[in-house]
Amino acid sequence: MREMPPVEDLGGGIWSIPVPIPDNPLGYTLIYALESPSGPVLVDAGWEHEESWQALSAGLEQMGSSITDVHGVVVTHFHPDHSGLAGRVREASGAWIAMHQADIDLLRRIDDLGGSGQRELEVRQLRLAGAAEEEVDLWARLDPRLDPPQMPDRPLMDGELVDVPGRKLRVVWTPGHSPGHICLHLEDGDHLFTGDHVLPSITPHIGLFPFDEEHDPLSTFLDSLAGLSELGAAQALPAHEHRFTGIGPRAAEIIAHHEEKLDLLAAALGQDPATLWELASALPWRRSWADMHALARRMAASETAAHLRTLERREQAVRHTRPEGVLEWTAPSIAPAAKG
User: Fold this and answer.
1) Could you count the other beta carbons within 10 Å of the beta carbon of residue 232?
2) pTM (global) more than 0.70
3) Is 326 helix (H, G, I), strand (E, B) or coil?
4) Domains of the chain
5) Model confidence at 143: pLDDT above 70
6) Is the pLDDT of residue 156 over 80?
7) Which residues contact 268 (CB under 8 A, 6 or more apart)?
8) Which residues pair with 19 in a beta bridge?
9) CB under 8 Å to 116, separation ≥6 — which residues?
């Protein structure tokens, strides 16, 4: 568990408020509060938990404000450690909640599924991935996933300014970690709020789920990273770990990390078809496959699926479907050399 830093006045009307994520190795989410004549505007809101709520409330009080003064919450992406408390902030203050339209659309899909629908989807996808039946049975017995956060009332699009009176906070759409992930460029302060898109030493989870959807989240993530160096922001304010400079070089490191993983996965493909579960279990992870929790194995499979999709787009992997629907991959066939 990471040790939580203190609440900090970063100067220029920006405050950093760490909000704990109970029982999670990430430790905390860094919430940023921007001062404005209409009240603070929060970048993210933190996990839905009483301990998190108390930390957010205390941090706002330390900056001379309160929850009831909050003017708005702009959420970098829908994940619960970023969006969980947004609804509670809105109830206390009447604040608006803003999020990119692509993540709002995804939240509606999750909400329409409901808890039982989410569980059925997980089970169906595990079968497509070729997971062992005992793994499928385990997921079938699990409680439904977390309820989605409160629906935002202000959709955001790339390039628009967020409603922060007296400031210029511009949306930079950076899909990959989620379809609607955004960074926020504070143009009057030369800062970039990076959410989970660029972190100083860890890389965000880039997964494809459902496994049979046709989009390519890893390629969009890599493209989003490549474009950040053009912004010229001097300092990154990420949602986890700590502030840092050198956004362009760090983005290049993350791109190189994923290119190495793509090379490793391409080398694991052969002419004999392999399921997603077989390929994911054969790759190196921080923990051995057997020691992983069921959720960690599913996330590893999701990450492997995202890398396979990029290899498909690059014509370095070929997808097949068994008659019963299980997905498999092979290396591309090598045509025999022409005889001259």
Assistant:
1) 11
2) yes
3) coil
4) 8-103+148-255 (3.60.15.10)
5) no
6) yes
7) 274, 279, 282, 283
8) 29
9) 144
